Amino acid sequence: MSKPEFTAGLNIAMKIPKAQYEATVAFYRDTLGFDVKEDDVSYAPTVSRTHSVRFGPNTLWLDCVDNYSQPDLWLQLHTDDLDAAAGKLADIGIHPCDEVEPLNNLDSRTHWIKNPAGVVHLLAESG
């Protein structure tokens, strides 16, 4: 098995309960003055609305999740070899949890994983 390389991705997703969604979007747009754009959510069936925010070199995705009771933060990782990365992570007890959010129409190979603290990461093969 090759030794996979991991790098940070440029996407951060904030999963927001429906009851706090509008106020959160307004916070980034109106209070902080960031450029906030509503985007298509057809790729993520668990998300009812999403807005993207330029957050330095990153994109912060404000995702409205109707059945959440508290916010959650998800991060993106890249690897040059998804199979080797999944194997290395499995060796320490980290297994794909792709059921957390089915993704449709993505052009890359991906897995959802959780770190030991339970924070969700999208692990995407780059290259």
Automatic annotation (TrEMBL):
Record-annotated VOC domain positions: 9-126
Domain of life: Bacteria
Protein's name according to its UniProt entry: VOC domain-containing protein
